[in-house]
Write a structure and sequence with these properties.
The structure is a single chain. By secondary structure, this protein is α+β, with helices and mostly antiparallel strands. The protein has a domain of 118 residues: START domain (Alpha-D-Glucose-1,6-Bisphosphate, Chain A, domain 4), CATH 3.30.530. It has three helices and eight strands, in the order ββααββββββα. The chain has an eight-stranded antiparallel β-sheet. The chain is globular. The two termini are 31 Å apart.
Length: 171
C-alpha cells in the first residue's frame, strides 16, 4: 500500500495491491457485482448509466453517500479492469482503477489505483482502501468455492456496465 505524490504534476496516487487465494472469477464477481460489493464493502446500489451510490456509516451512526460512475469495464480470459469516477460531495472528483489478474494458479492479484484524490482525504483513503481490500480477502476466504480449471471467464457476463456516454454526470 502506498500513496505517491508527484509534485511536478501536483497530484497524488494511492496504490494498493493484494494477492488473493482464490480464482479470478470469484474476485471479479466480488468487485463488480452490486450484491457482492454490498457484502464486503458498503451498501451499494447500481443506478442508470452505470452510476453506483455507496452508503458509508460512521461509528456515530451518521451516514453519508459517495457516488461512483463506471467509465470503462473490460473482462478478458486472464484479467479484467474497470475505471470509475468517484464523487464525494464537497470535494473534487477523482478516478479509481481496479485490475484483477489471474496468476495461472489458484490465486489472483487485485490492484487498485486511486488517482488524484482530494489532498485532504489522502490519508483516510490510503487507510480505507487497505482496510476494504483486507475485508474483501476475509469475505473471499469465507465464501469462495475452489477455482474450477474448466471455467471460461472470458464468456461469463460482467455485472459492471460502462454507460453509453462517457460524459460526466451532473452533481
Amino acid at each position: 500500500m502506498s500513496a505517491v505524490r508527484d509534485s511536478a504534476a501536483d497530484s497524488t496516487a494511492i496504490f494498493v495491491r493484494r494477492r488473493l487465494d482464490c480464482g479470478f472469477d470469484e474476485i471479479w464477481r466480488a468487485v463488480t457485482s452490486p450484491e457482492s460489493i454490498s457484502v464486503w464493502f458498503t451498501p451499494c446500489h447500481l443506478g442508470p448509466g452505470g452510476r453506483y451510490s455507496l452508503r458509508f456509516t460512521e461509528d456515530s451512526g451518521e451516514s453519508y453517500f459517495k457516488y461512483a460512475t463506471v467509465l470503462g469495464c473490460a473482462r478478458h480470459a486472464t484479467h479484467g479492469e474497470y475505471r470509475f469516477l468517484l464523487q464525494d460531495e464537497g470535494y473534487r472528483d477523482s478516478m479509481v482503477e481496479v485490475r484483477v489478474i489471474a496468476d495461472g494458479g489458484a490465486g489472483s492479484t487485485l490492484e487498485l489505483r486511486h488517482l488524484h484524490p482530494p489532498p485532504e482525504l489522502v490519508d483516510g483513503y490510503t487507510r480505507g482502501w487497505a482496510d476494504y481490500l483486507d475485508a474483501l480477502r476475509r469475505h473471499l476466504a469465507e465464501t469462495a468455492p475452489p477455482p474450477s480449471p474448466a471455467s471460461s471467464p472470458e464468456r461469463a457476463p460482467s455485472p459492471v456496465q460502462a454507460p453509453e456516454s462517457r460524459a460526466r454526470s451532473p452533481r
